[in-house]
From TrEMBL:
It is a multi-pass membrane protein. This is ABC transmembrane type-1 domain-containing protein. It holds the Pfam family TMD0_ABC. InterPro entries: ABC1_TM_dom, ABC1_TM_sf, ABC_transporter_C-like, ABCC_6TM_D1, TMD0_ABC. It comes from Fusarium floridanum. The keyword Secreted does not apply.
Length: 517
């Protein structure tokens, strides 16, 4: 065995053109963790499903396909271990433990595949993710074994195991809607689809096809999932509101956040992944430029294939994480709207008309909730932008030195200006919403007494009054929108002018130092 493969590496310098990982690194870092995670997650998931003890599917050939493929995988893992123990095989100190762990994981895969198929109405997320990463990592190790040249028998067994895992991955991604029990067939596609369908939004294709061929109606929509039904949302928020000791100030906000903490926190992970993929781009650009400057006969030219794969992974990752981040954000917004509108409706129907103006609830259901909706769309950008700023400033400092403070200063100026402008915007917004409430109240009162209005001949008078109130409302909203535009201008000053000022300062500083930087 080459000494590079028995070292941790991770890069196998001097082996296989220098563009490879060491076998020890692949076994200990790529193969072992993914199998260990499956062995930790499989019992927990199996116990959770077995406690429900509710069979979700009817008998089908897909179960037998899964079981047969899993048994074939177990057999290939046994063969791989036997071939590794032969005297002709050259292995690392982690090869046998890794192979044994993979064998145990394949047994766990068999058990979890059966439980997931019978007791779940959607493809297993755990199995799909495990098989996806396991195929990628096993393919890397198989390539290394094959390129070594002296481990062809273990390499062949590893190749067979990888191909079987690909087949298992294919059958595990098949949705079960066609053989679900009758009581579960009415579930929406979002609930019964797997993680890959969620990533690519394939579960929406039936709706797109229906919209392409005919006019969409309410009946064309998918049935709502349990978590989006009004009764469920009302019971959830009403129970929490009744238990809340604080019913003034931010009490309602805290109640809604407490009931939706799961959907809100689920947005964090894809947002962090999006940040990671975004900041991979400057490193890849730098690596690509360095590779392009090398001679065509250099030993490092194979790195170009790695760069192609890296760019593919980054842009696919950006697309997937952006879609998931936005999708989960709007899911949380929809649930929040459902909670607020249901409790507003409940309050409006029970309110004492002599104690308060019931028409105020109409404004809350329209303009106020629309503003809440708009604000929640960018709520996670607050902490995410702070993380991005910190990472970006660090990367700029590595390349530009003290000049990195210029975009920071521009950002601070933009933030301070926006904060000052927001105070005026909020005041104008409050005046606009108050004008809307007055107009709706007057309109509601007139419609409620329409018979008397017509008898007294006041239709034109009251119509002109409501039109005047509408004109006043538009005048007030015009001031609000102008301030909002100025606020947007201040917010976009930093992204537009910060790069220009930074490069100008960097050029001046480089010239003052005689071209050395």
């Amino acid at each position: 065995m080459s000494l590079c493969d028995d070292s941790f590496g991770p890069y196998a310098a001097g082996c296989r053109g220098g563009f490879d990982l060491t076998l020890l690194f692949e076994e200990s870092i790529l193969v072992v963790p993914i199998n260990a995670l499956l062995l930790l997650a499989a019992p927990c998931r199996a116990v959770y499903l077995l406690r429900k003890n509710t069979v979700k599917v009817q008998s089908s050939h897909w179960l037998y396909c899964k079981l047969i493929l899993c048994l074939c995988l177990i057999g290939s893992q046994i063969g791989f271990i036997i071939l590794l123990t032969q005297s002709s095989a050259v292995i690392t100190k982690a090869s046998l433990p890794t192979a044994a762990l993979s064998f145990v994981a394949s047994i766990g895969l068999l058990g979890l595949s059966y439980v997931e198929h019978v007791y779940s109405y959607r493809p297993s997320t755990i199995l799909n993710l495990f098989l996806l990463f396991s195929v990628l990592f096993d393919a890397t190790r198989t390539r290394t074994l094959w390129l070594q040249g002296y481990n062809r028998s273990p390499a062949t067994a590893a190749l067979v195991a990888t191909v079987i895992k690909i087949a298992i991955l294919v059958v595990e991604t098949v949705e079960k809607r066609g053989f679900l029990r009758p009581q579960y067939r009415a579930l929406p596609p979002e609930v019964t689809s797997g993680i890959f369908s969620h990533w690519a939004f394939w579960w929406q294709l039936p709706l797109f096809r229906a919209g392409y061929s005919k006019k969409l109606e309410i009946e064309s929509m998918f049935p709502p999932a349990k978590h989006f039904k009004s009764l469920y949302l009302q019971e959830l928020v009403q129970t929490a509101w009744d238990k809340s000791p604080k019913k003034e100030g931010n009490g309602l906000l805290l109640t809604v956040l407490s009931t939706l903490k799961g959907p809100i926190l689920s947005i964090v992970f894809p947002r962090l992944c999006f940040i990671g993929f975004t900041f991979c781009q400057p490193f890849l650009i730098s690596a690509t430029l360095e590779w392009a400057e090398k001679d065509s006969d250099s030993d490092d030219m194979n790195q170009g294939y790695g760069l192609i794969g890296s760019w593919f992974i980054v842009y696919v990752g950006i697309a997937v994480t952006t879609g998931q981040y936005q999708h989960l954000t709007y899911r949380a917004i929809t649930m929040a709207r459902g909670q607020l509108i249901t409790i507003l409706y409940d309050k409006a129907t029970d309110i004492n008309i002599t104690a308060a103006d019931p028409t105020a609830s109409l404004t809350l259901m329209s303009a106020d909730i629309e503003r809440i909706d708009t604000g929640w769309r960018t709520a996670h950008d607050v902490w995410a932008n702070l993380v991005e700023i910190a990472v970006a400033v660090y990367l700029l400092e590595r390349q530009l030195g003290v000049v990195c403070l210029i975009p920071v200063g521009a950002a601070i100026f933009s933030i301070v200006g926006s904060v000052i402008a927001v105070s005026f915007v909020m005041a104008r917004q409050a005046m606009w919403l108050e004008a809307i409430e007055k107009r709706i109240a007057a309109t509601s009162q007139m419609l409620g007494a329409m018979k008397g209005v017509k008898m007294c001949g006041l239709t034109d008078v009251l119509g002109a009054r409501i039109q005047a109130m509408r004109n006043e409302e538009m005048h007030i909203s015009g001031k609000f929108r102008r301030l909002l535009i100025w606020n947007m201008v201040l917010a976009y000053l930093a992204p537009i002018f910060a790069p220009i000022l930074t490069f100008m300062a960097y050029s001046v500083l480089a010239q003052s130092r005689g071209g050395r930087q």
